[in-house]
Design brief:
241 residues; alpha/beta; seven-stranded mixed sheet; 9 helices; 9 strands; 38% helix
C-alpha cells in the first residue's frame, strides 16, 4: 500500500477533492467561511498546508489584490494545486513552496518568504502536530503577521466530552449517507500515512485548548465563526478591532 504524508489522506490524488467532500461534512462551507473572514483588502496571504488548492482558489477569487504563498510538504499536492490555480487563471498570484510548516515555525528565515503577511490561513493540516508544536506554530504565525493581521484555521477538534464522540461520529455517518456513500466506502480509498517531519497521525486538541494557545501566542481577539459538530473554523486578530 502506498505510504502517504499526513494530510494527503487518499492513496490517489484524483480522489481527494471528491473524497474529502464525502468524508467531512460541509467541507465547502467550512472553506467559504475562512475566505469570508479574510479581509478583501489583504494583499500578502500565507497558507500552511495548501492540499489541492481549494482554499487558495476561494481566497484568490474573493480578494482581488491577494498574493498567496503556500507551504506544503507534499510534492503531489503542490503540483495538483498549481495546475488547478493555473487553470483558473491565477498562476501569477500564487506560489507554492515545498516545505514542512513545522520546520518554518522553527526556522522561518530558512525559507525566505519574509514577514508582514496580512493574513495566514490553514485547513485540515495543523491537527497533525503535537500540541507543543501547534503552540510554537501559532507564535510564529503571530510574529509573521502585520499588526492588524488575522489567522484562520479549519480543523477537526477533540470532542469536549466522551459523550460527544458518538454524536460527532453519527453526524459524519449521516453526511456520507446523504452523498450516497457509507464512511466505510469512503475510507476504503484512504491510504496509510506515515510520520513526515513534524506531522503524524491525527493529534486533536479541544477547541478551547486551541483558543487558549492562540491567546497565549499573542492574539488579542479570538473567535469561532463556524462550528459543525467536531469541525471548527477558529482564529482571530493580533489586536482588538
Amino acid at each position: 500500500m502506498q505510504q502517504l504524508f499526513p494530510g494527503e489522506v487518499f492513496a490517489k490524488t484524483a480522489d481527494f477533492d471528491a473524497g474529502i467532500r464525502q468524508l467531512l461534512p460541509r467541507y465547502d462551507e467550512m472553506l467559504e467561511v475562512i475566505s469570508r473572514c479574510v479581509p478583501l483588502s489583504c494583499d500578502r496571504i500565507l497558507e500552511l498546508g495548501c492540499g489541492t488548492g481549494e482554499l487558495s482558489l476561494k481566497i484568490l477569487q474573493r480578494c482581488p489584490q491577494a498574493q498567496v504563498v503556500a507551504l506544503d510538504y507534499s510534492p503531489r499536492m503542490l503540483e495538483y494545486a498549481q495546475n488547478k490555480i493555473a487553470a483558473a487563471g491565477y498562476a501569477n498570484r500564487w506560489s507554492g513552496i515545498e516545505a514542512d510548516f513545522g520546520d518554518w515555525a522553527n526556522n522561518p528565515e530558512k525559507f525566505g518568504i519574509g514577514r508582514e503577511f496580512t493574513a495566514c490561513v490553514s485547513s485540515l493540516a495543523i491537527h497533525h502536530l503535537q500540541d507543543e508544536m501547534k503552540f510554537q506554530l501559532f507564535q510564529q504565525i503571530a510574529a509573521s503577521l502585520s499588526s492588524d493581521g488575522c489567522f484562520w484555521n479549519a480543523d477537526p477538534t477533540l470532542p469536549e466530552s466522551p459523550l460527544l464522540v458518538e454524536v460527532y461520529q453519527a453526524a459524519r455517518e449521516e453526511w456520507a449517507a446523504q452523498q450516497g456513500k457509507t464512511l466505510a466506502e469512503v475510507r476504503a480509498k484512504v491510504g496509510t500515512s506515515s510520520t513526515q517531519g513534524y506531522s503524524s497521525q491525527d493529534q486533536l486538541a479541544t477547541l478551547n485548548a486551541h483558543l487558549q494557545m492562540l491567546t497565549n501566542a499573542g492574539f488579542e481577539t479570538v473567535a469561532v465563526p463556524w462550528k459543525y459538530y467536531g469541525l471548527a473554523v477558529f482564529g482571530g486578530w493580533l489586536r482588538k478591532l
